[in-house]
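Data card: per-record layout.
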Amino acid sequence: MWQLVINTAHRHLSIGLLKDGVYVDGVHEVAFKSQSEVILPRLKQCLSKYHLNPQDLSEVYVGLGPGSYTGVRIGLSVVKVLALVCSFEVFTFNSYDFMLAQHEGTMIMDARSSRAYVGIKQDHQWIFQGIMTLDELKSSMIPPYVGDTDLVNQQDSSLDFKALCEHVCLVSERVSDVHVLEPLYIKSL
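The structure for this 189-residue chain is written out next.
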């Protein structure tokens, strides 16, 4: 069973191709303000390397955010269009699970206006998921730090993209109607 993970909520374009839940290949590159231009060529590149078409996919996992308003909509739009012509199942995940996965620490994504989307995980439990001012964040952080760590003058820990893709396949929720999917906006947190 072929599976695809797409996340466009952050400055990275993330596309992971999995076979039976095991990472095979993918793209994780900085594409800030260019995701709409590069997502389809990168998707085609990833699939064609294994002689696959979107119709060969059994499951597609897509990030709902929170994150970049436009970025999240790009990923969702691609999945919605593909779902019109393909018969794969669709699953969703949030940015916190994608960026921090099974690790502990603090996930930070710029929410603008001196705020950040923050996920804090300790002892394998989420202790916070939401929005904080940068001042609040500085007093609440638990190392290691991932994401937009420059906002709080910290070093970014490297993400294990392979593990992130495999993890979201385990924690995602199945969608009954892909066409009613909506991003997790700042107002909904």
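Known properties of this structure: The beta strands are 2-7, 12-19, 22-30, 57-63, 89-93, 105-112, 115-122, 125-133, 145-147, 173-174. The first strand starts at residue 2 and ends at 7.

See the next section for split statistics.
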